[in-house]
Amino acid sequence: MEIEFKPFTELLKKHMKNKKLSQQSLADLCENITRSYIGDALRQVKPLSRKALAEIITVLKLTEEEKRELWESWMYERGDKETMIYLKEIEKKYSMLISKKPKI
């Protein structure tokens, strides 16, 4: 079972495109984020802070699944990749276990 995380910037660009938001229009919707900060994050010059990502996710009005995917990707790129893969494997195994119907 191979675990893969989509690149954070790819996901963020996809959500921006789906909402028809430019860097500037996204920054305008956020209270404390500038267009240049978003641009730096998208070019991977400067990583987004946790607070900035939370604000962007709120502004983008993502589904719970989209939020989770974006957070996981962000954490994977910023943190301990082995731990993130391990946690994802456990989650998948748990999902498979609870989806199996017990035999009576």
Structure description:
The chain is 68% helix and 0% strand. It starts with 7 loop residues before the first helix and ends in a 5-residue tail after the last helix. The chain is elongated. The protein has 6 helices and no strands. α2 packs across α3. By secondary structure, the chain is mainly alpha-helical. The chain has one domain (8-99): lambda repressor-like DNA-binding domains (434 Repressor (Amino-terminal Domain)). The mean pLDDT is 89.
Helix amount: 55-70%
Order of helices and strands: HHHHHH
The coarse overall form would be: elongated
Separate helix tally: 6
The portion of residues forming beta strands comes to under 5%
- The class by helix and strand makeup works out as mainly alpha
Total number of distinct structural domains: 1
Task: Indicate the low-confidence ranges by residue numbers.
Answer: none
Instruction: Give the N-terminus to C-terminus distance in angstroms.
Output: 29 Å
Please name the CATH architecture. Orthogonal Bundle
CATH domain fold name: 434 Repressor (Amino-terminal Domain)
Strand count: 0
Please state the average pLDDT score.
89
